[in-house]
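EI: anyone free to look at a 280-residue chain?
SC: sure, send it
EI:
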Amino acid sequence: MLADAPKPATPGEFKNFPPRRNVDGNKGDFGTLAIIAGSFGFHGAGVLTARAAQRAQPGRITLFTQEKIYAAVASQLQAVMVNVWQPKLKFPASTSAILIGPGLAAPEIAGKMKAFTQKLWRNSALALVVDASALDWLPPGAFSKNAIRIITPHPGEAARLLKTTAQKIQSNRVASLREISKRLGNCWVVLKGNQTIVGRSVGEIFVNPSGNPHLAQGGSGDVLAGFIAGLLAQPELQTDAGKTIRYAVWQHGAAADELQAERANWVVEDLVEKIGDARR
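SC: here you go
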């Protein structure tokens, strides 16, 4: 294998993963996820993200969304709590992970959201997943010591982070991943695309073998981000964050592979139903 070549992830790595839960476990044992997602014209992203997070089965999920779309979002969710996002938002004390980004594309929210995101990234001790529009708001440099940070860019978003082109990102995906991670304090990077790769500025990089071109649908990335965050909200699954992230990426692709084998016209809502239950 060439130096710095990504290592293939294999389904066998995920045998008995996630680990079996204790029979006396309760929802307080499995973490609380806070999601900040959805804006006017993009409310569906918040719904998809929350539903995908549910498939990871954290103890609790609260979705914070924009006031304009609160009714549209809340009416589509039952077990997920829904609240209005405020610039001085304080998360519940039980919160163990945060996801920010899906559907935050409405231009009128960018200013307040940028400052909020930067403060979270630099200072929060909680596991933090950043996706979509929020990627453009991340500050360079270090974040809280030992904190878990994950970003999930596609090649176009990665290109914006490095101020280059998607073509250059694709020409050397490993080097691009490492440079992004280095600039952002050695965070975990999930560089999406054909054979998604997972890694950081140092250490092994893994290439995911599952998935197919039919994942190229709007909302697919929201599902992946939600599922990753739902897993990482669980304290036991934070112990080896890299494995948890790789498992989420593999499940995302494997679910799409099973759907494609079952029917030719599946949609992202079907992916939400399948993710987390793909066969090994």
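EI: DSSP finds nine helices and ten strands in the chain.
SC: 👍
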